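Example 9 (inverse folding). The structure is encoded as follows.
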C-alpha cells in the first residue's frame, strides 16, 4: 500500500537538481505520514533519483511518530511504484540500500545503516527512479508525522 500523501517532487511541480559536473548534489524530500502509513510493510515514494545519477549517501529524519516507547525502522532504496518491496534489480543495487538501524522512538536524524554494498552497486539509468521508503518495524502506537530523506548523489561516470 503506497503512502497516502505526496509532495511537489513526486507530482512533478518541483524538479530535482542535476549535477553540472563532478560535484555532489543533495536533495531533501519530505512527506507527511498518516498513522495508516506507519503500518508494518507499508511502502511509498518520497522522491526521485534523477536519470544519469548514482547515490552517494542518505540521511533519514523525522518527527516522533510513536506515542509509546516502542519504535519504528525505515528502509530506503529504489521502488518500482507498485510492489510490496524495494527493488532487488541489480541495476538498482540488488536490494534495499539500508535502514535507520536501531529503532527510532523520538524525533530523529540518522545516516542510513547500509545493507552490504547495495547503494554502491547502483548503476546509471536513462530514466528517473523512484526513491522509496518501507516501514520494516512499525511503531506500537503510531502518530502522524513528517519523514525526511536527504539523498546525496552524483552524475555517473
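The amino acid assigned to each position is listed next.
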Amino acid at each position: 500500500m503506497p503512502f497516502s500523501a505526496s509532495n511537489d517532487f513526486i507530482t512533478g511541480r518541483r524538479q530535482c537538481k542535476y549535477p553540472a559536473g563532478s560535484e555532489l548534489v543533495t536533495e531533501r524530500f519530505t512527506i507527511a505520514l498518516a498513522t495508516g502509513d506507519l503500518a508494518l510493510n507499508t511502502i511509498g515514494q518520497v522522491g526521485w533519483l534523477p536519470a544519469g545519477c548514482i547515490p552517494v549517501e542518505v540521511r533519514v529524519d523525522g518527527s516522533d511518530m510513536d506515542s509509546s516507547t516502542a519504535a519504528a525502522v525505515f528502509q530506503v532504496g529504489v521502488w518500482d511504484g507498485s510492489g510490496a518491496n524495494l527493488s532487488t534489480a541489480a541495476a538498482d543495487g540488488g536490494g534495499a540500500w539500508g535502514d535507520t538501524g536501531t529503532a527510532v522512538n523520538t524525533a530523529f536524524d540518522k545516516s542510513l545503516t547500509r545493507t552490504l554494498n547495495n547503494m554502491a552497486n547502483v548503476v546509471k539509468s536513462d530514466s528517473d527512479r523512484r526513491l522509496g521508503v518501507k516501514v520494516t518495524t512499525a511503531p506500537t502506537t503510531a502518530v502522524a508525522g513528517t519523514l525526511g530523506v536527504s539523498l546525496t548523489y552524483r552524475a555517473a561516470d
